[in-house]
Amino acid sequence: MQELSARYLDAILATDKAAAGRITDAALTAGLAPLEIYEAVFTPALYAVGERWAANQITVTAEHIATALTEAEMTRLLPHLLSPERTGRLALVASVAGEQHRVGARMVADCFEALGWDAHFTGADTAIDRLLSDVSGLRPDLVALSLTLSMNLSQLQRSVEVLAAVARDTPVVVGGQGLRGMDLGGLSVHPNLRVVADLRQLSALISQITPYPGTPLPASGPLAEPQTPPAWAPFLAEIAALPTVGLGVADAFEAAGPALIADVNSQLEARLDRDALVGTAGLETMRTNHTHHHRFMSGWLRQGTPSGLMGTLAWVIAAYTTHGFALTYWAHEIDAWLAAIDRRLTPAEAAALRPVYRWMLQAMPRIAELPA
Q1: How far apart are the C-alpha atoms of 287 and 262, rounded to whole Å?
Q2: Of 226, 251, 275, which one is at a domain's C-terminal end?
Q3: Fewer CB atoms < 10 Å away: N or C end of the chain?
Q4: Predicted pLDDT of residue 210
Q5: Which residue has the higher pLDDT, 267 or 281?
Q6: What is the CATH number for 351?
Q7: What is the DSSP letter of 219?
Q8: Taking a C-beta distance cutoff of 8 angstroms, is the pair 197, 223 a contact?
Q9: DSSP states of 41-83 as a string?
Q10: Could you tell me if 112 and 93 are in contact, meaning their C-beta atoms sit under 8 angstroms apart?
Q11: Strands (DSSP E) along the chain, which ranges?
């Protein structure tokens, strides 16, 4: 299956739709079920596509084309996937607000369909108001939420909190790459929630559910903390020693997002050396990074783990550096965040956030020196 996935990766990167189709057909001929093809062929290939984009080996356009080709192959597999036996149950499947990635959530929807459920797939970036409207109107037997990027964790948390308030008896399943390395204790606000790591776990979970609405799901548990490189150890210890900021400060930081982001953008855009700092990536990429920074930190300040912050910083530095950012950019960016926080938040809120940002200011040059 690794060989099939490698060939499939070559096909989608070459924009070779016919070759991608032949590989999918070969997997079927070899006896793989559609969900096995999703898990063993498509998913590793798409992870590799993302890694190549992060390493500046392919363009974002190539990444989007690879995703579109994979969605086309998923559509071709539907006749082989749909179960003729239907349970009469409905799952509402959504990518959380702010989450632009939809393939993982679509795979989840197809998993339900393969096991006899009907799946209502809302697509990417499902606003909480839309989620509530669909829950109220469709009255699903289960809600499944997908998180690909950890920076959208706060949106997942909010979705779960709202569902716990208005649809407490409706089971909720959450999953996705964005949950790795994050503290999921905040999700326990919903009494009937389960975290799944992949389609295999989801399939097993669905198979355990009886055909009667309202049946509780098995007890939830956090995803296992991923193994971290030994070189991260001193950084993880330093993060663990930082004082917690408290939910009130995290809420204030998130609420001030537009003002904070605009302030940071303005500071860096006014620098005479701005073009040297962002290189070929350009100012729009820099602005996007500031938006992503705020979104990630809004979630991490609430319930992040040391490895969640360390992993994100290491990835961001490596990815943006390969896309043209100067290593000196990071110190200037964190300085700008510190200044914006002092201006846009109360003195007490700024004081609570300052240790985290001062740690990033001194740690990011060291992180940049770590081996890839």
Answers
A1: 9
A2: 226
A3: C
A4: 53
A5: 267
A6: 1.10.490
A7: P
A8: yes
A9: IIHHHHHHHHHHHHTTSS-HHHHHHHHHHHHHHHHHHHHHH--
A10: yes
A11: 90-95, 118-121, 142-146, 172-175, 193-196
